Amino acid sequence: MAWNEPGNNDKDPWKNKGGKNQGPPDLDELLNDLGKKVTGIFGGKTTKGGSGSGKSFSSIGISILLIVASVVYAFSGFYTIKEAEQGIVLRFGEYSGTVEPGINWKWTFVDRIIPVDMQSTRDMPSSGFMLTKDENVVRVEMQIQYRVVDARKYIFSVTNADDSLNQSLDSALRYVVGHAKMDDILTSGRESIRQSVWEELDKIIEPYNLGLIIVDVNFKDARPPNEVKDAFDDAISAQEDEVRFLREAEAYARGIEPRARGRVKRMEQEAIAYKSRIVLDAQGEVARFEKILPEYQAAPKVTRERLYIATMEKVYGNVSKVMVDVEGGNNMMYLPLDKIIQQQNTSNSSGKTTYAPVNDTNVNTSPTSSSGRSDRFNNGGN
C-alpha cells in the first residue's frame, strides 16, 4: 500500500524522518528561526513557544527587506552626464526629454539615458577615384569636420546620422568633381572645389535634419593615376612657369608705368611753363610797344633808325658772322666788336685778306665791286 493512501499516514516520510513524527517546515517557523538568530546576534532575548512573537519577527524581516530594496533602487537611479554631453531620456523606449550635464536621477528599469557629445569636433574622411568633366580619372581625398548641435535630431532623425553624413559627403564630392576639369582640380581650382563641396553637402543633409553642422572642409590631396602622373607633372610645371612669367611682367609694368607717368607729368609742366613764358613775353612786347608808340609818333625817322640799330646789334651779337668793309685796299671789321680778340692779315697774289675771329670764323674778303664796297658773311670759312 502506498504511503499516501487513506489510512496509511504513518508511513509519511516527512513525519517519520529521523525516527520521529516530523512534517514539512512551515514558512512562519522559518521566519521565526531567522528572527531568533538576528535577535541573538544583536543581544536580544528569544522566547520559546510563542506564536505571536513568531509573527512579529516575520513582519520585521519583510519590512527590513523592503527598506533595503528601496534604498538600493533609489541609489541605482543616480547617473552623471559629462560637461560636454547632453542626455536623451527614453521612458519605456519613448523619447521623454533631455537632461543637462551634472548628476541626475532616473527610474531604474523604466528610463534609459543616451549621452550625446555636443562639443567635440569630429572628423570624417572621404576619398576615391572619380571621373572629371573632361573624362579624366583623378583620385581625390577630402576630410570634413562637424559637430552635433541637436541631440534629439541626431539620435532619432535617421537610423545612423554619422553613416548618412558619410554617404552625403561621397555624393557631394563625386558630383562636384564630375562637373569640374582635371586641371582645375589639380592646380588653381582647389579652393573653388572645396567651397562647392561644402555648399553641395549642406544642400544634401538639410532635408534630413541630422542635427549636425559642418565646421570645415579640407581638400587634402588630388592626384592623377600613376600611369599618367609624369605627363601631368610636366603640365603643372608649365602652368607654374606661366604664372611666374605673368608675375614678372606685372612687376615690370608696375616699375615702368610710374616712370612713364612721371615723364608725362614733367612734359605737361614744361608745356604749361612754356605757355606761360610765351604769354608773358608777348605781354612784355605789347607793353614795350605801347611805350615806344608815343615816341614813334613824335619822331618816326629817329625811332626807326634806333630800332634798326638795336635790332642789328642784337642779331649780330648772337651769331658768328662778321661784317667786313673793303674800300681802297683797307679792310675794316665793324661787327661784332666785342668778339674781336685776334686778327690776322694774309696777303696773296689776288690781293685777298683773311680775318680770323676768336670763334674760329674765317672772313675772306673779295675785290671791291663797282660801288667800291662789298659785304661778305662767312661762317667757318664757308
TrEMBL record:
- Record SMART domains: PHB
Q: What are the residue boundaries of the Band domain, all occurrences included?
A: 76-236
Alphabetic keyword roster: Membrane, Transmembrane, Transmembrane helix
Q: Which Pfam families match?
A: Band_7 (PF01145), HflK_N (PF12221)
Q: Where in the cell is it found?
A: Membrane
- Per UniProt, the ranges with Polar residues bias are 359-382
Read off the InterPro entries from this record.
Answer: Band7/mec-2_domain, Band_7, Band_7/SPFH_dom_sf, HflK, Membrane_HflK_N, Stomatin_HflK_fam
> What Gene Ontology cellular component terms go with this record?
membrane
Q: Where are the transmembrane segments?
A: 60-81
* Region feature (Disordered): 1-29, 345-382
Where mainly located? membrane
Which first-to-last residue range defines the signal peptide? Answer: none
Q: How does it sit in the membrane?
A: Single-pass membrane protein
Q: What does this protein do?
A: HflC and HflK could encode or regulate a protease.
Subunit composition? HflC and HflK may interact to form a multimeric complex.
Family statement drawn from the similarity comment of this UniProt entry: Belongs to the band 7/mec-2 family. HflK subfamily.
What's the protein name? Protein HflK
